[in-house]
Amino acid sequence: MSILASPMYFIMVVSAVLTLTLSIVNKVFTDPDRMKEIQAAMKSYNKELMAATRAKDNEKIEKLQKDKPKISQMQQEMMKMQKPIFLSMIPFLVVFYFLGKLATGQGWGEFIQLPFTISLFSVGNDLTWIGWYMWCSLPFTMLFRKALGIS
């Protein structure tokens, strides 16, 4: 029996492979501690700026404006870390395109007949192939992020 004969298992395997790939890219190209540090600094800066603006404290606003280049530099650093993750989405779109073509070509149709019922949201046992992909990717994401030590 070919794995293509069972769209449920095939899509589960594809989901695992794609999720693992994205998790590895995330692990290699991002520094989670630095990301948290940057996000905390930006949040603190924005909170202080909002408070100073509401209080119309021009002195505090001027002081905060002097820190703006540093905050902008931190934002750029964060974007550089996230860029590979965004670029890795391109292959995902290609895979989804071919999965759609495969679903049509293999006669899976729009819905996959699951051998069990998903009672959440009253889905029953009919699910689109992309819905099944997303359903599978959730536990794989948690598993791979935990295994790779990604928070």
Automatic annotation (TrEMBL):
It holds the Pfam family EMC3_TMCO1. SMART domains: DUF106 (SM01415). Its main location: membrane. It is a multi-pass membrane protein. It is found in: Membrane. It comes from the Archaea. Residues 35-62 form a coiled coil. The chain crosses the membrane at residues 6-25, 84-100. Keywords: Coiled coil, Membrane, Transmembrane, Transmembrane helix. GO terms for cellular component: membrane. This is DUF106 domain-containing protein. It comes from Candidatus Undinarchaeum marinum.
